[in-house]
Amino acid sequence: MEKLITTIEGCKKQDPKSQKKLYEQYYAYALKIVFRYIYRYETAVDITNNGFVKLFTGFLKFEYVNEELDAAKMLMGYIKRIMINCAIDQLRKDKMIPQIGGIPEHVWNATNKSENADQSLLYKEIVALIKGLPAQYSIVFNMYVIDGYNHLEIADLLNIAVGTSKSNLSRARVILQNNIKKENESVCNI
Predict the structure, then answer these.
(1) Is the pLDDT at 81 greater than 70, yes or no?
(2) CA dist., res. 163 & res. 139, Å (int)
(3) Could you tell me the pTM of the whole model?
């Protein structure tokens, strides 16, 4: 893990080799985050790349505790926040209308070598169910349930009322529960 600290320090000094190493190591992780918000693969790739540009240009702001485990967790959180903000910016530009698209299989398989096949399949199924929600519901659901934002933060980022955020989350949960129930019933009837 000392290598991560060296890479981080290199990125702070704008070292291209360190930036390339960090990009290659965290690209799939960042793309999966963006893809939960952006439905078209090509657009998600563009946003992920733009997110890395923002990450590297503002890397001096990134601070970590000198322990490897903390540095890794903090870096992943930093990347996550930047990617979510870039995705939300794009959604605002698109007036919160999602684009239709899919994600190639190799992207699903590239992120976590320690995931087993069942975990990977479950993740893909959950993402597909969330993407089936109306856009305003899926965005709030992603931000609150998966990414850990509170309703006040969601309201600020999306320029909506806190009550609207809560309502959208509640409706998203009801729709997801109904869809999961329907899916389970169809599997049981086979």
Answers:
(1) yes
(2) 15
(3) 0.77
